[in-house]
Amino acid sequence: MSGLIAAATSAGDKRIALRAGLTCGRIQRLPGAFNPLVAKLVQELGFEGVYVSGAVVSAELALPDIGLTTLTEVAGRGQQIARVTDLPVLIDADTGFGEPMNAARTVTVLEDAGLAGCHIEDQVNPKRCGQLDGKVVVPAAEMIRRLRAAVSARRDPNFVICARTDARAVEGLDAAVDRAKAYADAGADLIFTEALTGPAEFEKFRAAVQVPLLANMTEFGKTELISTSTLQDLGYNAVIYPVTTLRLAMHAAEQGLREIAAQGIQTGLLDRMQHRSRLYELLEYQRYNDFDSGIFNFTVSE
């Protein structure tokens, strides 16, 4: 029964794996999963971790990424995703959902939900999408209070607390570097600088900051897309692809719905669909059958 219904790996072991991965010399790739099934696919395809994007959690609720989601909603989704995968899951905790005390509570709730780590950012509360103009960051001293509160609330020392700074687009690269150093001094295990423009800025940031660094490779934003091999050569420890799977899925869903609306039948879409047999393979139906033949007592024709 191990590994069915829920992952076989404990939350504690997943946190150890994330922390070890950040210092192993090989970049840790964390594609965004918009639901638990995608997280299973991420694991099957050999990635090192899973990411849960706040923008995606918002979008799934048909809300913009402007701080409308709650800790309960984000932690609930994170728990559903972390439950099904043996990989460590890093989750977007926005600004910590309020004041320093809220950031402290956020860490305890995310620990209880089985997450391996979270990132907290230095935007004002409520925040906005990191790729948009018009962001406002809090004074560095206020973010340091947020981080110290989060770190002090952590019960598992292996839970990774990542500090995200949005200062690059607001105050410039040098200010973002200064903030990153201060955030590391405040106890952040990992630094995420949002909206760097290209390899030169990534390289400058790496040269200036000693702690592990996370790169954001989101599409259609301010950052040039850079390969994992180049990011590894630049010295980055982790990379997230936050919205990629949702963008792929929503584009495919829209194209399919348009065709059904126009043609009245989905026959022309079949070669673009995941086959029922592949879905059942990903869901591990056969292993459920081995556990209880009353559950799985049929075959799927190709």
UniProtKB/TrEMBL annotation:
Involved in the methylcitric acid cycle. Catalyzes the cleavage of 2-methylisocitrate to yield pyruvate and succinate. This is 2-methylisocitrate lyase. NCBIfam families: prpB. GO terms for biological process: propionate catabolic process, 2-methylcitrate cycle. One of its GO terms (molecular function) is methylisocitrate lyase activity. The keyword Lyase applies. It comes from the Bacteria. Belongs to the isocitrate lyase/PEP mutase superfamily. Methylisocitrate lyase family. The keyword RNA-binding does not apply. SUPFAM superfamilies: Phosphoenolpyruvate/pyruvate domain. It catalyses: 3-hydroxybutane-1,2,3-tricarboxylate = pyruvate + succinate. InterPro entries: ICL/PEPM (IPR039556), PrpB (IPR012695), Pyrv/PenolPyrv_kinase-like_dom (IPR015813), Pyrv_kinase-like_dom_sf (IPR040442). CDD domains: ICL_PEPM. Keywords: Lyase.
